[in-house]
TrEMBL record:
This is PROP1-like PPR domain-containing protein. Residues 531-543 have a biased composition (Basic residues). Residues 42-208 form the PROP1-like PPR domain. Keywords: Repeat. PPR repeats lie at residues 39-73, 111-145, 146-180. Coiled coil: none annotated. The keyword Repeat applies. The lineage of its organism: Eukaryota, Viridiplantae, Streptophyta, Embryophyta, Tracheophyta. Gene3D superfamilies: Tetratricopeptide repeat domain (1.25.40.10).
Length: 554
């Protein structure tokens, strides 16, 4: 009683920041001083405290000690530990939990939920072989396999799109004499590839006298839509066996199915019907509508109206991120800033969450076109000036990468200065990004200066640098080579023209000389001919005169 009182009033009421290990150590020291063993309730309180602090390893240590002390292990406490593992995604701890159960199963009354969780964790680790082994080993511990355990394996196979593996589970259930339930058939129907398969499993469902549940109707809607039978999917919601309380949820599934299969206008029409009836669309269906609508330009108003439909914060953040994505792609700066303001207001007490969301948006801009880069820069100045927010290092990293990809040196220098303004020292990655930006813009001198500041002790960094040099330096050389070729061609062309002109002029001169020579020869010949003719005429005249004189003498 004394120990329990101290546990309740003192040690377990220490500040939340007190290390769990210190608490356990103090309690063990206290029991050693008193020379008594901790009671079962003392262990239970310690386990509860560890679960509240999310210290699963410490809780399992206590469960192990509890079993070694011969105490009965509480199924409730073990389920609490499994729940924490589920919430924190610590599925890997299934091996340790199962080991403790194997060692102390005589002090533990297993139930279906504990065994289902164990199988489910193995499946989440994609260790299907171990999941099957665990089913058989639990049977050896006198725990008969349940439908829920097999359903967990089947769901895992279908999640991995392993249809054959999922159908094999059904055969395993038959061999183990475990009957399927409505959840089993909802998995089978949801993953049918033909209408005949849908009808076959629906008939089998009737043979097992399983009444169609909400999951079955939802599975039918999705299966018909996947097979392209959208009219039959619409007919499902008209079934009179659907409980009125489930109708809105099934209609929401129909909205999602129609929207994701190219029937957005019909999906929106059913959404309007649901609203007129005074009901709300299920959050998943709203997200589907936002996701489909954001691919159509000019739908900002509709997207904002859908976003208002989401009251659950997690779904709202998901939807808000998608609408901001639309704003980035369509240059709606003022709307993006307003949505950032709403995010800030919702997470004002959680700076880390705000930073994560902002970084996620800027990841859309990194590696994008120059138009999105300008949007990202405008958004950066807006959230600084209007919201008073300091950009995170990752946000600046994304923008610097976008500048590098676009070869935008001026904006790269602006972002470079923002690191100093925000109080972030330059690191290896920021130097590498700036080096890339300088190379991309052709500023080789500044790039060489930055390169000297980058340590070369990391093989991956050296690989990135080599890739940058190969991409940008070779590109510059290629451009210079092309320029040289053009210059050479231009020079050769000019020289060719000159040579042609020179040849033409030479030919012209030769032709002129030839013509002149020919003309000269012709003139000479002509003169000689004339002289000869004159001589002949004179000779002829002389002869005639001689003859005349001879005649006169006679």
């Amino acid at each position: 009683m004394l120990t329990n009182t101290l546990l309740s009033k003192n040690l377990l009421r220490q500040p939340a920041m007190a290390p769990v290990e210190d608490i356990i150590s103090k309690i063990e020291s206290l029991h050693n001083i008193l020379e008594v063993l901790p009671s079962s309730s003392s262990y239970a309180k310690l386990i509860s405290y560890c679960c509240r602090m999310r210290k699963v390893d410490a809780a399992l240590d206590i469960v192990d000690k509890m079993g070694e002390a011969g105490y009965m292990l509480s199924t409730h406490r073990l389920q609490s530990i499994l729940q924490i593992c589920e919430e924190t995604y610590d599925y890997i701890l299934v091996h340790r939990i199962y080991s403790i159960i194997r060692r102390h199963h005589h002090h533990l009354e297993l139930n279906g939920e504990i065994c289902r969780c164990l199988i489910h964790f193995c499946v989440r680790l994609k260790d299907f072989e171990r999941a099957y082994e665990m089913v058989n080993e639990l049977q050896e511990m006198n725990f008969k396999p349940t439908t829920a355990m097999y359903n967990a394996i089947m769901a895992g196979y279908f999640r991995e799109k392993n249809i054959v593996g999922g159908l094999t589970v059904l055969k395993q259930m038959q061999d183990a004499n475990v009957d399927p339930d409505s959840q089993t058939f909802s998995y089978l129907i949801s993953n049918c590839e033909t209408e005949d398969d849908i009808n076959m499993y629906y008939e089998e469902l009737k043979q097992f006298d399983i009444y169609p549940t909400r999951q079955i109707f939802m599975a039918l809607v999705n299966a018909y839509a996947a097979c392209g039978e959208l009219e039959k999917a619409k007919q499902v919601v008209l079934d009179s066996r659907i409980p009125l309380k489930c109708l809105n949820e099934i209609k929401s599934v129909l909205v999602s199915a129609l929207a994701s299969h190219g029937q957005l206008s019909e999906a929106l029409a059913i959404y309007e019907e649901i609203k007129k009836a005074g009901h709300n669309l299920e959050p998943k269906a709203v997200i589907t509508l936002i996701d489909e609508l954001r691919h159509i330009s000019g739908e900002l108003e509709g997207l904002l109206l859908l976003l208002k439909e989401l009251s659950d914060l997690n779904y709202w953040v998901d939807g808000c991120f998608r609408v901001i994505h639309y704003c980035v792609e369509n240059n709606h700066l003022s709307c993006a800033v307003d949505l950032f303001k709403q995010l800030k207001d919702n997470f004002e007490s959680d700076d880390t969450m705000t930073e994560v969301l902002f970084d996620a948006v800027y990841s859309l801009i990194a590696g994008s076109k120059s138009s999105r880069l300008q949007f990202g820069l405008d958004l950066l100045w807006a959230i600084k000036d209007e919201l008073g927010l300091v950009p995170s290092r990752q946000c600046l990293d994304f923008l610097l990468s976008a500048c590098a990809n676009s070869g935008d040196l001026n904006n790269a220098r602006l972002i470079w200065r923002e690191y100093e303004v925000a109080g972030f020292p330059y690191n290896v990655l920021s130097y590498v990004r700036m080096y890339q930006a300088l190379l991309a813009s052709g500023d080789q001198r500044s790039a060489d200066f930055i390169l000297k500041k980058i340590p070369r002790d990391d093989a991956e960094i050296c690989t990135v640098i080599s890739a940058c040099q190969k991409t940008y330096v070779d590109k510059v050389k290629s451009v210079e080579g092309e320029k040289k070729k053009k210059i050479v061609k231009s020079v050769e062309g000019v020289e060719k023209k000159k040579n042609v002109k020179s040849v033409e002029e030479e030919m012209k001169k030769k032709n002129v000389k030839l013509v002149e020579g020919e003309m000269k020869k012709k003139n000479v010949k002509s003169e000689e001919g004339k002289k000869k003719k004159k001589k002949k005429k004179k000779k002829k005249k002389g002869t005639e005169k001689k003859q005349e004189s001879e005649v006169s003498v006679e």
